[in-house]
Specification:
- Strand 1 and strand 2 form a beta hairpin.
- The protein is elongated and about 80 Å long.
- The protein contains twelve helices and 19 strands.
- By secondary structure, it is an alpha+beta fold.
- The chain folds into two domains: 300 residues, Aminopeptidase (3-Layer(aba) Sandwich), CATH 3.40.630.10; 115 residues, Alpha-Beta Plaits.
- The chain starts with 16 loop residues before the first helix and ends with a strand.
- The strands form five sheets. Strands 1, 2, 3, 6, 7, 8, 17, 18 and 19 form a nine-stranded mixed beta sheet that branches. It has a four-stranded antiparallel beta sheet with strand order 12-14-10-15, covered by helices on one side.
- Bound molecules: zinc ion (2 copies).
- The site of one zinc ion has 5 residues, from loops.
Length: 425
């Protein structure tokens, strides 16, 4: 607790935070220095399992390949599922921190890639372990069952589903609520939660467009896939601007465009990788239909002799926060952190597979963001209109949540949210 925070029912439970903080900070730095790619989180899973055992949880490992589940049954009462994701990204860390990652690993394509906790999932783990420590140490002040889910492979959108498919809810029973949180590039101390469709659905696609190779001096002998791909990229920009209603939201990004090897060789194919964000099934269907139509029509316009291939890569469903669950959870967060600390930041175009745990078990979900950026730096950047450039966001090689007070706030938020659902005495 800092002296700016108001007393609440959870005040007693979080009283031990200062005592456990050094251990949590060391845990966070250790996880940050040892990031692991999606479904390769074996060391992380081992660290988490050991922590859970130390706190008296019943632990199951290997759920959905590398997932870890800890259960603490403490008498009659609600079953509350608390979730942290724990995978990292193929990003080369450039923060310059003394606990920065220098790790490399073999990526899914077989190439050696740098690995970094560039999305803050190490923070999520440290915060959840901290909350579990506080709750386990205050068992006489609540009753019910805590189900702690440490989920692999959020970044590829399949970790939550893998745990469900591996019988997560057969093992631990369906929860009464699913609670999760994500560190975000907003000022520390700020918590943001939006009822309803809170995070977008994602569809990632690989598109291969086929031409005919020839010498760079002889365009008449070629069907040029570079020009075909370039025209496609430009035309795809009209999907959102010309086919989606002004009141609806969608994003279409071409994040990768690869073709050719040399200036004087017209290649025989080009590859595009698309990332699409939507909030409703209707808008999603419109965008996917338009992408397919444009890709095929541009190939035809170029005289391609082979139909393009469109292959789905990762997909995430839309995350829909239950309005009643948001009201109950944010009410407790406001009582603890103060009325102004919790805002409705509106829907985010980011995606999350945490919602899968809720839809698969029939439980309501409340998922919120907590700030990890130095408030003074944030204020200066906003004043100068340079927040987009100066405040590193998730997935940036410079993403570095300010440990203090972000860690303590995340621990408290998860603890307070859990207590809002457990029976308290
Ligand atoms: Zn991420
Ligand atoms: Zn993330």
């Amino acid at each position: 607790m800092t002296d700016t925070m108001r007393p609440s029912a959870a005040t007693g439970v979080v009283g031990r935070l200062a005592e456990i903080h050094p251990r949590l900070e060391a845990l966070y730095k250790d996880l940050h220095a040892h990031p692991e790619l999606s479904f390769a989180e074996t060391r992380t899973a081992g660290v988490v399992a050991e922590e859970l055992e130390g706190l008296g949880f019943e632990v199951t490992t290997g759920v959905g390949r590398t997932g870890v589940v800890g259960v603490l049954a403490n008498g009659a009462g609600p079953r509350v599922l608390l979730r942290a994701d724990f995978d990292a990204l193929p990003v080369k860390e450039q923060t310059g921190l003394d606990y920065a990652s220098t790790v490399t690993a073999t990526g899914p394509d077989g190439d050696e890639v740098p690995v970094m906790h560039a999305c803050g999932h190490d923070m999520h783990v440290a915060c959840l372990i901290g909350a579990l420590d506080l709750l386990a140490g205050a068992r006489d002040s609540w009753s019910g069952t805590i189900v702690a889910v440490f989920q692999p492979a959020e970044e590829v959108g399949s970790g939550a589903q893998a745990m469900v498919d591996d019988g997560l809810f057969d093992k631990v029973g369906p929860p009464d609520v699913v609670l999760g949180q994500h560190v975000a590039p907003v000022p520390t101390g700020m918590i943001a939660c939006h009822p309803g469709a809170a995070m977008a659905a994602t569809d990632a696609l690989r598109v291969r467009m086929f031409g005919r190779s020839a010498h760079g001096s002889r365009p008449e002998a070629a069907i040029d896939p570079v020009v075909m791909a370039a025209a496609t990229v430009m035309r795809l920009q009209t999907v959102v601007s010309r086919e989606i209603a002004g009141g609806d939201t969608a994003v279409v990004t071409v994040g990768a465009l690869n073709a050719g090897t040399k200036d004087n060789v017209i290649p025989d194919e080009a590859e595009l990788k698309l990332n699409i964000r939507t909030y409703t099934p209707e808008v999603r269907a419109t965008v996917l239909g338009a992408v397919s139509r444009i890709v095929n029509a541009e190939a035809e316009a170029a005289g391609a002799e082979r139909t393009p291939e469109i292959t789905p890569l990762d997909t995430f469903p839309v995350l829909v926060n239950d309005p009643a669950a948001v009201k109950r959870t944010t009410g407790a967060l406001r009582a603890h952190f103060g009325e102004d600390a919790v805002v409705d930041g509106g829907p985010a175009t980011g995606s999350e597979d945490c919602g899968v745990l809720a839809t698969a078990s029939g439980a309501p979900i409340c998922y919120w963001y907590f700030g990890g950026t130095d408030p003074a730096a944030f204020e200066t950047a906003v004043k100068n209109g340079t927040a987009g450039r100066d405040i590193p966001s998730n997935h940036s090689p410079f993403f570095a949540p300010l440990i203090n007070p972000t860690l303590d706030i995340g621990v408290q938020a998860m603890t307070v949210a859990a207590l809002a659902w457990l029976d308290t005495r």
